[in-house]
Design a protein that fits this description.
The chain is of the alpha+beta class. It has a domain of about 210 residues: Jelly Rolls (Sandwich). Helix content is about 30%, strand content about 15%. It has nine helices and 13 strands. It has a seven-stranded antiparallel beta sheet. It has a four-stranded antiparallel beta sheet with strand order 5-12-7-10, with helices on one face. Strand 2 and strand 3 form a beta hairpin. The radius of gyration is 26 Å and the shape is globular. It catalyses: an N(6)-methyladenosine in mRNA + 2-oxoglutarate + O2 = an adenosine in mRNA + formaldehyde + succinate + CO2. This is RNA demethylase ALKBH5. Pfam families: 2OG-FeII_Oxy_2 (PF13532). It is an enzyme of class 1 (oxidoreductase).
Length: about 350
């Protein structure tokens, strides 16, 4: 080797394959000709190298998490005894829905999740004549059942007396009933339909509300959240400002480990669009569907058995990607929080900022 001018075999091999270094330098920064084009990354030395370049992204995510956290109010208002009474009433709603005693648009069924609309209902997701955010429409008045009296007496009055919402704010109540493994994909509550804030109360079990996730299907997967908000049984969650308008929120399948129900209380905007009377989705307010035929109910089966592989797969994915969100308890004055939410709405109306939303 000395005769060939090389004292180390590695030097000789390197001289014989100079293109390897060129290839490495060519794609390490994601460029092919120094012009900034072709940024698809084709070379990665190691996971550690990638981690070193993720500091900026982590900082941005942490900033966004702080913005989300600062625009959320949470309170523990309902005692376990009060929760048990309200949960009995929710069971009665489910039984009436199964018996076909509600108007057609009051009940919306999906795998492992049923929705019950009261006061006001609206089209969304696959129900839309034209797909996409901003296409949601309220049904005509009277096409969903009125808000049950127990919701007013046991839930809304408590929130008013605790300063969470003002008297007369709520004209729409939705009950979401989840079975283990159920979910709602990432979305923003339609800005042209609902005023802010968005108020929800949780029952039956603890869960979590996630912000900034992306869903993929077949198999179902959820990206790492920007922020994870634990929601306890009996807790009240109020979304306004950034958390309500500028980032999506969702319920992930792995966060519903037991049956859980949530009552969502909102106010529709006075100028919210409604379906035309001749719309195919619109029916006579007086019409009620015939009682539902007896069918198999997922409630009678073991829901964990069918969905355990899906949940475990997502749990493994979650463990591979540590969350950037940090759960810190915080308190915000209700009065200041409400005023800030109103100021935020005025700012949005003047700025006209558009928000990308997902179907839900």
């Amino acid at each position: 080797m000395a005769a060939s001018g090389y004292s180390d075999l590695r030097e000789k091999l390197k001289s014989m394959t100079p293109h390897r270094d060129d290839y490495k330098n060519k794609y390490a920064d994601g460029t092919s000709n120094g012009s900034g084009k072709g940024r698809k990354r084709k070379y990665r030395e190691s996971d550690d190298d990638e981690y070193e370049h993720s500091d900026d992204s982590a900082e941005l995510r942490e900033q966004e998490a702080r913005r989300v956290r600062s625009s959320i109010l949470q309170k523990s208002i309902f005692t376990p005894e009060e929760c048990a009474l309200i949960e009995e009433k929710i069971d009665e709603v489910v039984a009436k829905g199964e018996a076909g005693l509600y108007r057609e648009h009051t009940v919306d069924r999906a795998p492992l999740r049923n929705k019950y609309f009261f006061g006001e209902g609206y089209t969304y997701g696959a129900q839309l004549e034209k797909r996409g955010p901003g296409q949601e429409r309220l049904y005509r008045k009277g096409e969903v059942d009125e808000i049950p009296s127990w919701v007013h007496e046991l839930v809304i009055k408590r929130l008013v007396s605790n300063g969470v919402i003002p008297e007369g704010f709520v004209n729409s109540a939705v009950i979401n009933d989840y079975q283990p493994g159920g979910c709602i994909v990432s979305h923003v509550d339609p800005l042209h339909i609902f005023a802010r804030p968005i108020v929800s109360v949780s029952f039956f079990s603890d869960s979590a509300l996630c912000f900034g996730c992306r869903f993929q299907f077949k198999p179902i997967r959820v990206s790492e959240p920007v922020f994870v908000l634990p929601v306890r049984r009996g807790s009240v969650t109020v979304l306004s400002g950034y958390a309500a308008d500028d980032i999506t929120h969702c319920i992930r399948p792995q966060d519903i480990k037991e049956r859980r129900a949530v009552i969502i209380l909102r106010k529709t905007r006075p100028d919210a669009p409604r379906l035309d009377s001749d719309s195919p989705l619109s029916s006579s307010p007086a019409e009620r569907p015939a009682p539902l035929k007896a069918k198999r109910s997922h409630r009678k089966a073991d829901p964990d058995a069918a969905h355990r592989p899906r949940v475990l797969e997502m749990d493994k994915e979650e463990n591979r990607h540590p969350s950037f969100s940090r759960h810190r308890r915080h308190s915000i004055s209700s009065e200041n929080y409400w005023r800030r939410g109103q100021d935020y709405d005025k700012h949005r109306e003047s700025s006209g900022r558009k928000v990308k939303m997902r179907r839900h």
